[in-house]
Amino acid sequence: PSKHWDANRYGRTKLMLIGKVTGTIVSTRKCESLIGSKFLEVQLIHNGVESDSYIIAIDSVGAGIGERVLLTTGSGARLALRDTNMPTDAVIVGIVD
Q1: CA atoms within 13 A on the CB side of 38
Q2: E strands, the chain, where?
Q3: Model confidence over 65-93: pLDDT tens digits?
């Protein structure tokens, strides 16, 4: 089984992370405010090395599979979205060149 990101492991819940998009997530039923959002699975990168940890994030920049991305996490992640009331804890906010 794959390991998923655990905020408690890092001692705080508001982090900026870097990762690589590995797939898309399809959800046929979801909270109404999330309808139309694109969900991506991101493999986290720690110290320049791809880890065995993954996180699901809302894409706000049009990232694609294989791209390295910058993520913001924690309750403030929703501030990166147009609707700041969306229930999210992770948002892709940049594509790394």
Answers
A1: 14
A2: 3-4, 16-25, 39-46, 49-59, 68-73, 90-95
A3: 999 999 999 888 888 888 888 888 999 99
**What's the rounded Cα separation, in Å, for the pair 20 and 36?**
22
Provide the 10 A C-beta neighbour count for residue 40: 23
CA–CA gap between residue 59 and residue 14 (Å, rounded): 18
If one compares 57 and 8, the residue with the highest pLDDT of the two is 57
**Backbone torsions φ then ψ of 80, nearest 5 degrees:** -80, -5
Q: What distance in Å separates the CA atoms of residue 22 and residue 68, rounded to the nearest whole number?
A: 10
Read off the pLDDT of residues 49-68 as tens digits, 9 standing for 90 and up. Answer: 999 999 999 999 999 999 99
CA 40 to chain centre: 7
